[in-house]
Amino acid sequence: METFAILLKMFTMCPLNHICQALFNAVSIKYMEITGTKVQLMKSLIWSIATYGCEGWTLKADQRRIEAFEMWGFRRLLRIPWTQQKTNEWILEKLSDDRQLLNSIKTRKIRYYGHVMRKLSCLEKDIVQGCISGSRSGDGQRT
């Protein structure tokens, strides 16, 4: 309960652009030695903020950034600086965890696509399918 009070205090005092940083500081509290609890807090508090609206992202350009963000968070939880030169595999082994953020984003995108495709007739479905009614004018480029 004390951890929740600290998180609530940090959340209410921070400006909007520093919420993620404050949550990382709150999750990596020194007296919390159980890394499983830290990882669950990170996944529930930080990933939900970071992946808000991910259904509309293009993943080709952002895959490396998403994976880097995930590993950055794990390093913060374990308090391992980049200067220690520990590999990502070592960190994942230390946490007994896998990379899951990118897969969860892909799953959310696929679920959203299925949600849009089940609708009978709507603009989103027409845009995704590329079936906009009408014809283009043959005027060519305007000068």
Description:
This protein is an all-alpha fold and 143 residues long. The chain has one domain (2-129). Helices cover 63% and strands 0% of the residues. The chain is built from 7 helices and no strands. Helix 1 (2-13) packs antiparallel against helix 2. The termini are far apart. The mean pLDDT is 76.
In total, the number of strands is: 0
Beta-strand share of residues: under 5%
Q: Whole-number radius of gyration?
A: 21 Å
- Proportion in helices: 55-70%
Average pLDDT number: 76
Largest sheet: none
Write down the secondary-structure element order: HHHHHHH
Shape: elongated
Offer a few descriptive terms:
0% strand; mainly alpha; 7 helices; 143 residues; 63% helix; elongated
Summarize this entry quickly:
By secondary structure, the chain is mainly α. It is 63% helix and 0% strand. The longest helix is centred in the middle third of the chain and has 20 residues, at 59-78.
